[in-house]
């Protein structure tokens, strides 16, 4: 007659069998999950036009590309915006120290137009505005550039170039007008030109004036 195994031995065997079964089940489950994982090029194979692309990188958002294209609007857009400002201020009388449509001086007009059109804050006085941006030759003038003059008298004068040889300014005799740089008076007292605008300052104009 064969003796029955000791109960403690039986318990050890049962536990061992359970451990082995659990390990096998775990390995099988792991293998099953590994078999379900997509290959590394799954996303590039699944998306048209993405063959060979890094699946961790998304394609360029076309909206971002469109916004970048708005950084440098054509000069006609800037000119149109400045002509709208001329309509806003036309006929306003000149008044030294003035900043409103009841009376305005040349540097205040330039400051207001830059703030309202380009969201750029310029200094209040002509003597400070002449240090803004970088100097440019008269032949390089583009709409939005600053033009400075040294007429007779105590004060210098400033205006905003609008293109085609014309500039917007507050004239001491006629108030806010558009004048020609080829006028003999302005030719005689022309001093210098400066570019105070960067392409990023002009981006907002494209959304307002371009289709």
From TrEMBL:
Alphabetical keyword list: Hydrolase, Protease, Signal, Thiol protease
Gene Ontology terms, MF aspect: hydrolase activity
InterPro entries: Murein_DD/LD_carboxypeptidase (IPR052062), NLP_P60_dom (IPR000064), Papain-like_cys_pep_sf (IPR038765)
Residues of the NlpC/P60 domain: 76-197
Stored PROSITE patterns: NLPC_P60 (PS51935)
Family the entry assigns: Belongs to the peptidase C40 family.
Protein name (Swiss-Prot/TrEMBL): Glycoside hydrolase
Organism: Vreelandella piezotolerans
